[in-house]
């Protein structure tokens, strides 16, 4: 028979344990990643909180996408151990995800940030599944100063901006090799171009993340990824963030 005071003590202890277990819950509550005390990803939580707060402030509503940041950290920590390779982000906008990548890069490497920094280019907007007027004005409210301030406190060390229409802005980087590439350009044409340019230039063990893999608004993102990799007999791994991200790790003997 357990006495009342013992029961109370157990309840208090359970309550403390519960409140110290940190939950990264998707907006609709469908994915729940509990990080128990001592979990190696616990140090990622300040970045999760900062990301969620900044995204929410810019969106004017609560946005929680903690799994996205944890997935970034897992991938970035894996590729940091590789002997070589730079980093690239295709679709930097206001620098939110670039600010997650930059502080975790291997010493001496560079993050190439590709964007028009003026929103989508007319040449990519042919898909009639798009809500054209909305898409035309999307992602224009940015500047290199906003991005620099967010990523690196205004410091350009390890940063290179490729401003303009991708793939034109790839010129001059043909000799580079990459360990980590984040593709976040939403639309099919630039995603296809990015895969064609970067996949053959990934080092062994290098990782490509493609955002919007489960997006209802941009179903062409998943189509572009699946078409590209199906031709090579490769299956992209779907991650558990809010809009879905496809993860592909390059292994020796995979075809270009
Ligand atoms: C979803 S936003 C990127 C979001 C960003 N990663 C973040 O953390 O907030 C998509 C970006 O891709 C850029 N983009 C799309 N197509 C492009 C192209 N062909 N060339 C250059 N930038 C492009 C847009 O200008 C836009 O800023």
TrEMBL record:
GO terms for molecular function: methyltransferase activity. The keyword Transferase applies. The keyword Methyltransferase applies. It is an enzyme of class 2 (transferase). Its EC number is 2.1.1.-. It comes from the Bacteria. InterPro entries: SAM-dependent_MTases_sf, TylF_MeTrfase. Keywords: Methyltransferase, Transferase. One of its GO terms (biological process) is methylation. This is TylF/MycF/NovP-related O-methyltransferase. It comes from Sphingomonas arantia. The lineage of its organism: Bacteria, Pseudomonadati, Pseudomonadota, Alphaproteobacteria, Sphingomonadales.
